[in-house]
Every structure is written in structure tokens, then in C-alpha cells.
Design brief:
six-stranded mixed sheet; 11 helices; five-stranded parallel sheet; 2 domains; immunity; alpha/beta; Rossmann fold; CNF1/YfiH-like putative cysteine hydrolases
Length: 438
């Protein structure tokens, strides 16, 4: 069942208001007849001409909006100067109401264009269907399109213009939840390495569980790639790295490691490099983003370590890659564990807990319960120390000076961090990142 209807009047000429009103009235009448029991939310998308006020645009459509009582509280005119701006505003309205099954009614020649905007601004969470805007013979001139022919792929020039329009609009949006904040470790020398762990502030993601500096997009979540890209651009600008030379691990919850410059595996949870100016990153939304730095050989790495990756030894696999590829000495490698779910909050089924108990009984609390508490940070430290990393070269939540602590519990700090454990399936993601300075 359709939950929302978008009526696209954006391309229709402003000097033909009577025809537009007739089109809108007929369209709303058809919607009301088809959905008298379960009226959908209706958004009328129109262009706010340069220098005009939204109120004026809306008032010009009022005659067509009168009389639709069942739609009255569910009907809104949304005006903006670009398609990107008006569609993104509509997306915010849809997300406020948790609507995802959407019909778009639009001029035939706008369909392919609109599909490109939707592909950029929405994810597979949303379902769209399209219907032609019914026009009368004397209003066929309203179907305005400068370059487009339905059913044909848009020219690359048009695609580039759409991407540029979306990017410019997103760049103009204000940051949410305060300034962008980066946590840094005193263990990693900042004269050689640029590094940090992100928090959730300072981005443009507006959905509560993703707000505001979400740095991961997937088909199962509501933040599209373009929003994550804008958040990353703002992070890169604040941190001082090049977002075009940014490499994030391809999470598989295992222990494969990618060597920059060599054939890239399909999936990997660790990545290493000795190239200057290349930023490596590992995500975390309860799982541990782990950073590695060797100031002697000037090499670095990043790893994503969830409970499965911890048991599979992804951190030592990343260390071993630095040793074998760049000749690093185990005793020179520094390791920092970023914000992640703490032993105060994290629980696993008893069968999985047994594996951590074998590493060290202190990694498990309430071992005899059905879902014991697990300390994946302690397990990571123990495996690193057993592998040859010096205890003093590992920074985690065992640090004595709490003013230096950056290994906060993500689940305990909803104002600072995302947490899958706490927030459910539509969760945001922070990252740990590191690069060798030029």
C-alpha cells in the first residue's frame, strides 16, 4: 500500500498557473478516490523561482488544494530552487513519518531525470513506483524537458550536472549536533602520522540513529552514499587529509588484510600501507576500530575488530602484514583501540562466550549465565601481547590517566557515539583513520 505520493510540478512553467492548478486538482481528486480509507501523505513539489517567497508559491496553488478534506492534514507543498533541494526536503518529511512506499506522479519527460535524483538521494530501503501526470491536450506544452527523452539513458553531461547540483546543496546544509570532533591518541606521534577517531557530531545526517556524522551507507540503512560522502568531506577538511585518497576496509568480520598497492581482496578487515598521504580507515559502531603505527619504518594500518574478528586474530594479522611487507619490528609497532562497546554492556550467547573464556577467564563476566558479558578489548590486548606487541605500546581502556582515554563505550554514550547494540538496524558508524604525513 502506497504510504506517500509525490506530485512533481517542478518543471512546469510558472506563467501557466491556471493549467497547473487544473492538473493538480485532477491529480488530487484521483488520489482521494483511490485511497478514501487509507489516505497517503501527499507532497506537491514545485520550483521556488529566484527572488520569490515560498508563501507566494503555495498561495498560487491554494485554489487547487481546497476541498480535499481527507488529504488536508496530509498535504504539503514543498518549494525549493533546485530539484535536489526539494526532493531532499521531501525525504526528510518521509523519514520523520517513517514512510518508505512511495508513488511519484510526474510529467513523462521528467521520469528518467527523477530516477537519477532518487538513486542518489535514497537507498534500497525505499520503494518507488512512477505514474504519468495526466495532462489535457491544451496543456501538453507543460511537459518541459531541455535534454531528455524518456527511456533513454541521460547524457553523461546531464548526470554530472545532477551530481554537482546535489553536492552543492548538501555542502550548503548546516552541521548538526555541534562541531565536528576528533579524538586523538597521545601514543601515536603526530609529527609523523595524522590520525583520529570520529564521534557522531558535525555532519549532516538527520535521522536520529544516524545523526549527524554517519560515515557508512548501505542498502539496508536510510543514509545514501552522497550524504556519507559529504560527511567524509567535512571530516577530511577538519582533519587535514585528502578524501580522494581514502581507503576503508571492506568488512567481512574475519581476518583478511589488504596490502595497499597489491591486489585488493574482495573483503578484508585489516589494511596496511607505507605510502604517504594515503588515509586508511576502519569503521566501528560497537566493533573496535584499531589503528597501528610504526614510527621507525613509517608504516601504518587500520583494522575492524568485532567479536568474530577478535577471535580470528585480525589485529595480529594486521601487525604481521606490517612486519612481512615493510620490515617492521614488532617492538616498534604502536596500537590504539578506539571507541567500542565495553564489557559493561556487551553480551554474547554462552557458546560464543566460551571462546573468550579460553583466551582469558577475565574476558567474561557472569560466565554461567545464558548471555555473559564479554570484554573484546581485553581479548584484543591479550592476543597482541602474546603476538609480541609490548604492553606499553597498546592503548585501550586500561589507561591509568582517564584524561587520555579515547576507548569509550559506544553503547554508554549516545550523545557521542553510534551503537548497533543500542540503536538497532538503522545505526550510524564512526571510524578510526590514520595516514603517514607527507
Amino acid at each position: 500500500m502506497v504510504e506517500a505520493v509525490l506530485i512533481d510540478l517542478f518543471s512546469l512553467a510558472a506563467n501557466l498557473q491556471s493549467n497547473i492548478q487544473g492538473l493538480l486538482h485532477n491529480t488530487l481528486e484521483a488520489i482521494e478516490k483511490c485511497s478514501s480509507k487509507h489516505a497517503p501523505f501527499v507532497y506537491v513539489m514545485c520550483c521556488q523561482r529566484q527572488g520569490s517567497e515560498r508563501k507566494g508559491e503555495q498561495e498560487s496553488l491554494l485554489p487547487a488544494l481546497r476541498g480535499f478534506r481527507s488529504l488536508k492534514r496530509r498535504l504539503e507543498v514543498v518549494c525549493a530552487q533546485t530539484t535536489a533541494a526539494v526532493l531532499y526536503t521531501v525525504k526528510q518529511r518521509l523519514d520523520e513519518k517513517d514512510l518508505s512506499i512511495i508513488k511519484v506522479i510526474l510529467p513523462t519527460l521528467r521520469k528518467d531525470l527523477m530516477k537519477v535524483y532518487i538513486d542518489h538521494l535514497f537507498t534500497a530501503v525505499y520503494q518507488f513506483e512512477f505514474e504519468d501526470l495526466q495532462v489535457t491536450p491544451d496543456s501538453e506544452s507543460l511537459q518541459i524537458s531541455e535534454h531528455q527523452h524518456e527511456g533513454q539513458m541521460l547524457p553523461s553531461q546531464d548526470m554530472a550536472l545532477i551530481q554537482s547540483e546535489i553536492q552543492m546543496y548538501l555542502e550548503s546544509l548546516p552541521s548538526l549536533k555541534g562541531e565536528l570532533t576528533i579524538l586523538r591518541s597521545s601514543l601515536i606521534p603526530d609529527d609523523i602520522f595524522l590520525h583520529g577517531f570520529t564521534t557522531r557530531t558535525g555532519g549532516i545526517s538527520y535521522i536520529p540513529t544516524l545523526s549527524s556524522c554517519n560515515l557508512f551507507s548501505s542498502s539496508k540503512r536510510k543514509d545514501p552514499q552522497v550524504v556519507v560522502k559529504e560527511n567524509l568531506r567535512r571530516l577530511a577538511n577538519a582533519a587535514g587529509f585528502n578524501p580522494e585518497a581514502f581507503h576503508r576496509v571492506k568488512v567481512d568480520h574475519a581476518n583478511a588484510v589488504c596490502i595497499m598497492g597489491k591486489t585488493e581482496p574482495d573483503d578484508y578487515d585489516g589494511i596496511v600501507t607505507d605510502q604517504k598521504g594515503v588515509t586508511l580507515a576502519a569503521p566501528g559502531a560497537d566493533c573496535i576500530p584499531v589503528l597501528f603505527a610504526d614510527p621507525v619504518r613509517r608504516a601504518c594500518g587500520a583494522a575492524h575488530s568485532g567479536w568474530k574478528g577478535t577471535l580470528l586474530g585480525v589485529s595480529m594479522a594486521t601487525v604481521n602484514a606490517m612486519v612481512s611487507e615493510y620490515g617492521c619490528n614488532m617492538k616498534d609497532i604502536l596500537v590504539v583501540l578506539g571507541p567500542s562497546v565495553g564489557p559493561c554492556c556487551y553480551r554474547l550467547p554462552h557458546e560464543s562466550a566460551k571462546e573468550f573464556h579460553r583466551i582469558d577467564p577475565k574476558c567474561v563476566r557472569l560466565f554461567d549465565s545464558a548471555n555473559p558479558y564479554i570484554d573484546i578489548r581485553r581479548a584484543t590486548r591479550i592476543l597482541l601481547e602474546r603476538g609480541g606487541i609490548l604492553p606499553e605500546n597498546i592503548q585501550d581502556d586500561s589507561i591509568t590517566d582517564q584524561n587520555q582515554n579515547i576507548t569509550f563505550c559506544t553503547a554508554c554514550h549516545p550523545d557521542k557515539f553510534y551503537s548497533h547494540f543500542r540503536d538497532g538496524t538503522n545505526f550510524g558508524t564512526q571510524i578510526g583513520f590514520i595516514s603517514i604525513k607527507d
